[in-house]
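Q: Sequence in, structure out?
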Amino acid sequence: MCRWLAYSGRSVPMEAVLFQPEHSLIDQSLNSRLGHTTTNGDGFGVGWYGRHSELPFRYRCLHPAWSDTNLREAARAVRAPLFVAHIRAATGTPTQETNCHPFRFGRWLFAHNGLIRDYPLVRRDLMMSVAPHLFRWIEGSTDSEVMFFLALTFGLERDPQGALEQMVGLIESVGHRHDIEHPINMTVCVTDGQQIVAARYSSERDSRSLFHSTSFRQLRALYPDDPRIIAAGDDAFLVLSEPLIDVQGVWEEIPESTMLVARRGDIQQRCFTPRMPDRDGAR
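A: Exactly. Output:
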């Protein structure tokens, strides 16, 4: 089913995270250890924030990440202080560029692993709940993009946690109306270039894997001569579907029904509780 990661810290070449670790995201595209599918070859995408633009850049492709030489060149050339990368294993929607993550609206990027179950049954109801002024910006056909635009509808730009909780609350309500026992399974990431917000939740309380780094200071102590760790800085942070290296104590699993908010070295974990949308607060 998909794997993703998000990095924040000092500007580093993206290849230092995407390609160079022993179990990098590119390795996971061929050999995922914790995913429901071993291979994630139905496209990929990278979104990053540059020094001279408030809006994020994206590179997306429908080909497998492991075979894209342009991705390797771009990851070697581009340095960024915050980026999101995603490798896709499709769950019933077409393999096409517009269905590749991360999705973008204004300053915001969104990536998702998981699915809305029986999506064709609930697709119309969910899409009709997207705010009219946002609807025209939906480009693809995947459930993940609709999740993003529902969160935007419910105020993602003002209150990320509240918007994501209302998005999930609506999906569960619509799913139950269609007799779907467990409507949603997800790990998601949203960022505006200043903060990384990630959530792990599923209706059946058996979500896809999600971890975060514990301390780059600890990594620097373990590997004092590694230039990648030195360049990232002590406040660097990763949230990701699978650990990149097998070192005890470097990674912490994010619990079920939990949201994590990371901003400039400050990491907070909060309970994630779906709720029905406040229509008066929708944009």
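The chain has a mean pLDDT of 93.
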